[in-house]
Amino acid sequence: MISFIAQRIAKAIVVLLALVVMNFFLIRMAPGDPAVVMAGEAGAGDQLFIAQLREKFGLDQPLPVQLFLYVKGIVSLDLGFSFRQQMPVSKLILDRLPATLLLTGTAFAISLAFGILFGALAARFAGTWADTAITIAALIFYATPLFWVALMAILLFSVTMDWLPSFGYETVGAGYTGLAHVLDVAAHLILPATTIGLFFMATYARMTRASMLEVSRLDFVKTARAKGLSDAVIQRRHVLRNALLPVVTLAGLQAGTLVGGAVLTETVFAWPGIGRLMYEALLQRDYNLLLGVFVVCSAMVLAFNLITDLVYRSVDPRIEFAA
Amino acid sequence: MTVVVKNLKLALPPGGDRAHAVDDVSFDLTAGKILCVVGESGSGKSMCAHALMGLLPDTVTAESGEILFEGKNLLSLSPAEWLAFRGRGIAMVFQEPMTALNPLMRIGEQIAEMFEAHGLLTPKERQQKALALIREVGLPDPERAVRAYPHQLSGGQRQRAMIAMALALEPTVLVADEPTTALDVTTQAQILKLIRDLQRRRNMAVMFITHDFGVVAEIADRVVVLQHGKVVEQGTADDVLLRAQHPYTRALLAAVPTLQPPPRTPLPDRSKAVEVIGLGKTYVSGGGWFRSERRVQAAKDVSFDIFRGETLGLVGESGSGKSSVARLVMRLIEADAGTVRIGDVDLTRIGGKALREQRRRIQMVFQDPFASLNPRRKVGNIITDGPIAHGVKPATARKRAGELLSLVGLNASAMERFPHEFSGGQRQRIGIARALALDPEILVADEAVSALDVSVQAQVLDLLEDLKARLGLSMLFITHDLRVAAQICDRIAVMQQGAIVELKSASLLFAAPEHAYTRELLSAVPGQTSSSKAA
Could you tell me the residue range of the domain that residue B503 belongs to? Predict the structure, then answer.
């Protein structure tokens, strides 16, 4: 097992470096020059100033040299410096990471728990009104664009009913501490987390339902019935456990992308996370910051893939660790 | 009488091809006796078994009749009473040991679940009982077997585990639904012996469902023959096997191939259609930066010839490498070593367009008539795809397809229909027509009759024999069934662990087997004494 993890991490590092190189060139292929953008914002757009900016940030070096310096930095865990924000990229990202992890982690937990629950209910009562209701609701949330759900949720719960705050991470200037602070953040979290969660909940519910119906036709379920086991035990122990295997795969794939995938929701709810940081970096041609966000997101995806494999191996004994 | 089934009538949902799955069926199960219920697919034999367990599909209902268990009618049990009864009064063993066990649970847990379902014993006692049961059914290394997952056991071992599970609560009746059909012949012999030993030791009544008269001869005390849901004949094993009254029973018995190869005329032409020299193939799985690889040798220095107009049999148990050899000969997989010649062409040395052109000379008929035809394409398209790909005009190809369909005994109108509209035997005929559409010189039949009922099997074997003679085909016939091999093969090669251990004419092989493994295979074929008496 240890050697399996070591092997996977070694492979992940190679993949990550390849991604860094690819992103590096992709960004430089895109139109726009950060020095021009910055000079424009500073209101001093003459050639000399732009050349000075280029020299200052190493943009005058040939591309291979820039790449070498960048990769060298990455290897020593230095993500570089954001010219635009005048701060180290890693500090910018670390500042925003907790908010994003809180948001996507909550959304992920909600969607998995309720998705599996509703999916299992729909499968258990397949063909009844409960199944129909769950299936239709899942279809609606699956098909509706996230930002629209977000806007409607703000309209309904913040503007009309005034139950929940419409944007931000906490009430600015309120100076809450302790439990009050936790509750304040929680209140801000509900709308964005639910918005993201609904979509994923719908996918997990549909997946769980389909998978459970498929598993309940298998022979070993008949064996379980022939033992005289009650229906509840059969559903839980024999059907659900086997049915969750594809859900684990799907959830694992999505968990990694959730980190960078909250761009829309974070923007709509003004959530101070990675997604918004990336959005800002993109507008400002902040190469290093953008690359840094990409590196962190890629690392997350790789990490979650590894975690998924480990979870998969622990629930499915048929997959063995190669010695 | 332990169980009395009286005038049982099970209704199928309206709109099917018949109204009753089981129609007015009566039989008894007696303690210490084995009743074999025999019939072809669709005869209703599995439905009878499921009715005894209260496990009928929702769409099937008991219309009339009764199933008396120690005087109580099971058909009137409430759902709660069924829960208490299942596993305790009657326990069941299923056909497919691969899928009948939960892949995510340890064998010991699954056996212990029997006690748990009925609220018996403490968890620790359950584990101890599971271990004792595993010992009783003769699983090797019981302590490890308790902790093993199903995939870590072989097919025969899994079936032993299933039997251990069924025996856990000491049921009065054991229902076994084709428990040896999925097993190799030597494993089958062991499982049959186990079931008989246990039944005698525990004085159980056993209802044994099978389509195989060899198995019937081996194990039955009494026999019930079902056809289309009706009992056509019932009696002691000797009465049914030796003095069958009903024409259907007689036809079924006559369709069972004997182990005596029919006399064969020597081939006029001794030129080689296929020449296989020193084929080797090793499957390597795993292997990477840090892990060691796992190697399975599927073919070890395999050499044989097939003469023009000859059928060469390749027999052996699962995992012996016979299917790999078939795929190597067709070059569906690449050999590590060796040569395959078709006529004067070396199939292993060509590639690209040249290989694609040669492919039409050697065609395959697959085992599973359900999986080997694309369900979304009409039969006409399935047959003409190959010729059209080789440049035949569509109109010509369709005309030829019609001729081929009548050649294999189907109506040309079959072209416009989809595979699911045909029975298993008909689909296998379509599969043969598809293979013949390219005018091959060699036909590779990979277990081509294994999935078929015995009467259909006999028809398809006749068809293959007839086509071979008419079209001058050579055949590589792969089978695990020595009876089938005896009937259709001129020469037979016995494979074990990737190597051919014996290769000689069919008559010689059955009369004087030399290799120890060949002798073991031959002696494991069920029903040898009785069926030869019957024949």
Answer: 310-334+345-534
CATH number reported for the structural domain that contains residue B373 in this entry: 3.40.50.300
Contact list, A238 vs chain B (CB under 8 Å):
102
In a domain, B418, yes or no: yes
Does residue B379 sit at the A interface (CB-CB below 8 Å)? no
A224 touches chain B (CB under 8 A): yes
Residue B362 resides in a domain? yes
Residue B168, min C-alpha distance to chain A (Å): 10
B441 found inside a domain: yes
Q: Measured between CB atoms, which of B83, B104, B114 is closest to A242?
A: B104
What's the ipTM? 0.79
List per-block mean pLDDT (blocks of 10 residues) for chain B, which spans 535 residues.
90 82 92 92 88 89 90 90 91 87 92 92 92 90 90 87 91 92 84 91 93 90 92 92 91 85 78 91 71 78 92 89 90 91 88 88 87 90 91 91 88 87 86 91 89 83 87 91 90 93 92 92 79 39
* Candidates A7, A219, A224; nearest CB to B99: A219
Count of structural domains within chain B: 1
What are the residue ranges in chain A where pLDDT is below 50? 322-323
Most distant CA pair in chain B: distance in Å?
74
Separation between Cα atoms, residue A153 and residue A164, nearest integer Å: 10
Residues of chain A with CATH 1.10.3720.10: 97-315
Q: What's the CA gap between B242 and B80, in Å, rounded?
A: 45
Nearest by Cα to A9 from A313, A319, A237, A309: A309
Q: What is the Cβ-side half-sphere exposure of residue B52, based on CA atoms within 13 angstroms?
A: 36
> Which one of A220, A229, A242 has the shortest CB-CB distance to B117?
A229
Residues of A in contact with B147 (CB under 8 A): none
CATH no. for A97-315: 1.10.3720.10
pTM above 0.90, yes or no: no
* B394 found inside a domain: yes
